[in-house]
Amino acid sequence: MDINYELYKVFYYVATTLSFSEASRQLFISQSAVSQSIKALEKKLGQPLFVRSTKKVQLSPAGQILLKHIEPAINLIHRGENQLSDIKNSGLGQLHIGATDTICRYLLVPFLKQFHAVFPSVPIKVTNASSLACADLLEQGKVDLIVTNDPNSRLNHAYVQKTIRVFHDVFIANPSFFKQDQKDFSFEELKRHPILMLDPKSTTSKFLHNLFLQHQLELIPEIELSSNDLLIDLARIGLGIAFIPDYCLTPDEKDLFILHTKEEIPPRHIVVSINTSLPTAVSTEEFLNLLPEV
């Protein structure tokens, strides 16, 4: 089909905003022009792309399928435009990283500082998201590089460039509220206490749930949050046993202790990935070279 790119562009803005008026505002064209473009595209494709009502606009099944293909294409074009603009302004291009807030805080800050000291004119953008969501951002071309936990069910392992850390997850509690009357605890024994952990959208949550299932146990957490730092704070005041990466604990921590388990908790990894199917900016390569490999 010979379909004008502008029609797909209009479709993308309507599909992502679910509003003809908002698409009109973002595209700087009239709402009538937006409606005409969508009608023209639907006519060429031979099927409706939106379900319209007096109150809202929704994607039709055909529209949902089309968006899955159009969104990466639009992002790729924007990525190319941004890289050209950034190269013109700084010589290297923008660095856009996707990572969890925990990885940013406990691992990436020193490397971001080092990169900025060497390349002060390169714009740095960081998008915080779960490791699962970061993998989606990389696949869609919305970020240049991601630093995530592994295992990660959504990560294309052909994109992994290096492993920069091996770590263990640990259960922690405040001894003032949790009596440490034995050396090792079984998962069955831990289940009898309030478990504090990350929300189900995280790789950490999936990892722990799968670990319990491997021992024929169902894990029902008391509290689920999106921040390891909050989990530590709640464990510190005695609300339960938190499950966190070991590198989040400071060596001089006095209010928390690690509960050793009878069952083995396998190590996990922090990996750096780029979308190898897309052009790699010089800034991305330079930052990748700064990161150590274990």
Poorly predicted runs:
none
Mean pLDDT: 91
Tell me the strand percentage band. Answer: 15-25%
Main sheet, how many strands, which sense, barrel?
6 strands, mixed
* N-to-C order of helices and strands: HHHEEHEHEHEEEEHEHEHEEEH
* Portion in helices: 40-55%
Number of strands: 13
Strand arrangement within the widest β-sheet reads 8-12-7-11-9-10
Q: Report the span from N to C terminus.
A: 49 Å
Global morphology = globular
The chain-level structural class is: alpha/beta
Tally of helical segments? 10
- Rounded to an integer in angstroms, the radius of gyration calculated over CA atoms is 24 Å
Task: Spell out the blueprint of helices and strands.
Layout: H1 5-17, H2 20-27, H3 31-45, E1 50-52, E2 57-59, H4 61-90, E3 95-99, H5 101-118, E4 124-128, H6 131-139, E5 145-150, E6 160-167, E7 169-173, E8 184-185, H7 187-190, E9 195-198, H8 203-213, E10 223-225, H9 228-236, E11 241-245, E12 257-261, E13 268-273, H10 282-290
Parallel strand pairs: 3-4, 3-5, 8-12, 9-10, 9-11
Antiparallel strand pairs: 1-2, 5-13, 6-13, 7-11, 7-12
